[in-house]
Amino acid sequence: MLDDEQPTTPAHRRARNPGSQSALRSRNQQRLTQQLLKGGPATQADLARSTGLSTATVSNIVKSMAAADLVTLTPVTSSGRRAMSVRYNGDSAIAAGIDFGRTHVRVVLANTGYHVLAEEEAPLPRGHQAAEGIQTASRLLDKLLKKASISRSQLIGAGAGIPGPIDSRDGKVIRGSILPEWVGINLHDELEKALKIPVFVDNDANLGALAQLTWGDQGNVQNLMFIKIGTGIGAGLILGGALFHGSFGVTGEIGHVTIDEQGLICRCGNRGCLETVASTATMVELLSRGHDRPISTAEILSQAMAGDPATLRVLDDAGMAIGRALANMANLISPDVIVIGGPLTELGDLFLSPIRRGLLRHAVPVIGDSIGLKMSQLTSRAEALGAAALVFQNEPGSIIS
To answer: Is 90 exceeded by the pLDDT of residue 93?
Structure first.
C-alpha cells in the first residue's frame, strides 16, 4: 500500500534518520512526479486515479511540492466543477549528492525527476583530514553549479555519506570508520558551515540501499540488503520499504561478522572479521605479493577479466566468505533481494557466482532459494545518487541545522 496516512514523523527525526513515513512520502512523491513528467498537467483527481494514491495523499503531496515551487497550480474547470491543474516545474529544485571515500570525493547534481545534471570526482590523499575532504567537496559543488549553469538558489540541500558509522544521537562519526581521521567530527554541522545549505548525512551503505529504491530498478521492493564491498564492507538495510537505522543509527556492520576465529586482527579490535578476508584492501595485499608496488583495484578487475588464476582464486575465496555472512543476515530478516555494490560490480558473475554459492550453502534453503541476488547497476555512483535522494526524502521546512 502506497498511501501515507500515518502520523507525520517529527522533523528532527527525518533530517538525520529518515523513517518509514518520510521514505513512503518520498516514494509517493516520486510516483506522482513521474506521472506528471509522462502525462503532463493534470488535476489532482486525475493524478489520484492514474497513480492509485488516495485524493488526500495527492493533495498533501501537491501542497508540499507547490510550497517548494516544484509544481504550479492553475484553476480549471473539470466535469463542470472547479479544480486545480497541477503542472510540474521541471528542474527548478536541485539536490547535491556527496560521497566521501578513503581516497576520493564524488559530487552529483540531480533534479526531482531523478536526472543527473552534472557530476565529478576528485582524488583525496590517503589519511586526509575531514577539513580537506569537505573543502574539496565545496569546490567541486561550486564548479558543477557553474558548469551546469545552475543558480545556488535552486539548491534545496545536499546529502552526504561516509564509509563509517554515524551516531544519530549527536551526529558524530564514531570509531569503525574507514576514515579514522574523521572520527569525532559532526559531519552534518561541518558541511552546513562549508556549503551554507541544508545538509543530510548517513552511512554510505545506507545511501547505496536508498539509491536502489530511487534510482535503481528496485522501487517496489519492501525488504532489501545493499552490500558495499570496498576498502571496508558495510550493509544498508531497507525493511518495510524504509531505511533501517536501529536504535542510534549504527547498523549493517556486516564487515565485522566473525568468519575465522583464528584469523587476522581487524581494525575494530576483533579477530577474523569479514573485512580481513574479503575487502578490496585484503585482495590488494594478497595479490601485491611478489610485486614491487601495491596493485590497484582497477588491476584486480583487469586481471580477473583476463582469467588470471591467482586473482580468480582470491575473488572466489572472498565471495564465498561474503556469501556466508550474507546467509547469516538473510536467515534473520529474509530479504526480497540482495544487491552487491562497490568497485567490483563490473566483474558481474565472476564475483557474483562465488557469493551466490556461499549464500546458498549457509542459508536456510527456502530463504536462500527465494532471494534475488544481483550486482548494482549504479556502479560507483550509487552512494552519491542515494545522497541526492536523501534530500528529496525531506519535505520543505523539515530541514534543521
So the answer is: no
* Cell numbers describing residue 195: 556549503
pLDDT value of residue 30: 73
Helices (H), 155-203: 187-195
* Four-point Cα dihedral 121, 127, 130, 136, nearest 10: -30
Whole-angstrom distance, CA of residue 91 vs CA of residue 114 = 10
Task: Report pLDDT digits (tens) over 322-376.
Answer: 999 999 999 999 999 999 999 999 999 999 999 999 999 999 999 999 999 999 9
Angle at which helix 349-362 crosses helix 297-305, to 10 degrees, equals 90
pLDDT of residue 4: 45
Confirm if 127 and 181 have CB atoms less than 8 A apart: yes
Cα(237)–Cα(206) distance, rounded to whole angstroms? 7
Q: Angle at the Cα of 349 (from 226 to 384), degrees rounded to 5?
A: 35
Contact, 37 vs 113, CB < 8 A? yes
User: Nearest-CA neighbor of 334 among 366, 307, 356?
Assistant: 366
Mean model confidence pLDDT for the chain = 88
User: What does the pLDDT average to over 36-57?
Assistant: 87
| DSSP code of residue 199 | E
Q: In what order do the strands lie in the sheet with 71-78?
A: 42-43, 81-88, 71-78
Half-sphere exposure of 231 toward its Cβ, with a 13 Å CA cutoff? Answer: 17
Residue located via cell numbers 531523478: 114
Q: In percent, how much of the chain has pLDDT > 70?
A: 91
- Using a CB cutoff of 8 Å and minimum separation of 24, what contacts does 216-223 make? 216/339, 216/376, 216/377, 216/378, 216/382, 217/377, 218/337, 218/339, 219/27, 219/30, 221/336, 221/337, 222/336, 223/333, 223/334, 223/335, 223/336, 223/337
**Rounded to an integer, what distance in angstroms lies between the CA atom of residue 253 and that of residue 273?**
10
Listing DSSP states for 29-69 in one string gives HHHHHHHHHHH-SEEHHHHHHHH---HHHHHHHHHHHHHTT
Which pLDDT value is given to residue 177? 77
Cell numbers given for 285:
595485499
How far apart CA 95 and CA 156 sit, in angstroms, is: 6
Euclidean distance between CA atoms 387 and 108, whole angstroms:
9
Contact 234, 163 (CB under 8 A): yes
105 CB neighbour count, 10 Å cutoff: 26
Angle, in degrees to the nearest 10, between helices 382-392 and 204-214: 70
pTM for the whole structure: 0.79
